[in-house]
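Task: complex structure prediction.
Instruction: return structure tokens for all chains below.
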Amino acid sequence: MAICRNNLVFFGGLLVGVLGAVLVKLGNPANMGLCFVCFYRDISGALGLHMNPLLQYLRPEILGIFFGSLFAALVYKDFSPRGGSSPGVRFVLGMFIMMGGLIFLGCPIRAIYRLAGGDLSAVGGLLGIPMGAYLGLFFLTRGYTLGKAKPLPTWVSVIPPVFFGALTVLLFAKVWLGTAYPFFSLKGPGSQHAPVLISLGLGVVAGVLFQRSRLCLVGGLRDIFLFRDYFLIKGFVGIMAGALAANLVLGQFKPTLVGPVAHGNILANILGMGLLSFAAVLLGGCPMRQLIMTWEANLDSFVAVLGMLVGAGVAHRLGLAASPAGVPEAGWLGLALGYLITFGIAWAFTFAKVPVKEGA
Amino acid sequence: MSPRTLDCRGLSCPQPVLEVKQKLEQGQGPFVVRVDAPVAVENITRFLSQRGVAYEVSQDEEESLIEVKISEN
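Output:
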């Protein structure tokens, strides 16, 4: 049993790595087999929260991951409706996760995919992750908390499935009936995707793997910093190994300084991913983990996911997001504002909070 | 609730394991941790195993109790 669990996180990672490479082979944008930042951004565009014509698609992987991890959570009874731990603050942190992610152009998982595809500019992002995690942990070890979540009535747990179920209906309305809404890109990264049913199916597999393996990069770093424990980080070694091997086999490993759908500004890459992981630690999980916890009926995580969708919309509406052309001036401003407010939240909920009474 | 009990229900990851670490390092003897998330149980038990601290987990529908027996080696 112990050996099984120990290996689950590694082999789960390995499979996720292979899966990402396969999705690229089948049509997803380069080094973007799975990317939570990119996919939330595309969904945000598909829903019309931003109107960048290159970045609009209702990524079925995200919906598949929903069904997969919901199923796993139900089967293994990891399912209990909870919420009420400062959802408003979580919404804002979700927005700044996207601000950081859209400066780097990817989530921590895509940072690994990018490196495994030969894109050396991903190193900046991978350096930013421990930096941001360290910032978050600085406050966490000094008492940062958003308060306790409380059990919620069972009916509340229906809300996230209804939301993502509705997205699934929209997806198939578009694909099968050719409706005008949601908006799908005709060119650019939004138009590049694997066949819908394959994306959905592989998403389900990924969802089960994520839910069961507890993969969490930020958590892996946290355990190293705080406890010198290397258990969770094995999952990400697995993703790297799986994606690298699969990319080599599929002929997708192309060493280059700056890969596709990426830019080479190393400072922006470090600071962008730094903001993402800083905010992620304050939320208690990276963009992927927030989604998985949503399926476990954690309504606070659902609110964080909504914050990320809206954050992506705002970033693209206001022209704050980076692109392969680099980081726009407004992007630096957005990044600065992101750090300012995230530091503000971290400080307020560490040092300026109302003392919590002992016991319950 | 007795001071021997650490209530970590409803806390976001990784606060439960941080609180256990803090409590353990205060060195005030055995205590019981109440948690309601499976991930928190896994994080805490992994941490305790790594520190070589004996523990016992009991579960019901709603929550888990982790009894931490201080016998650090």
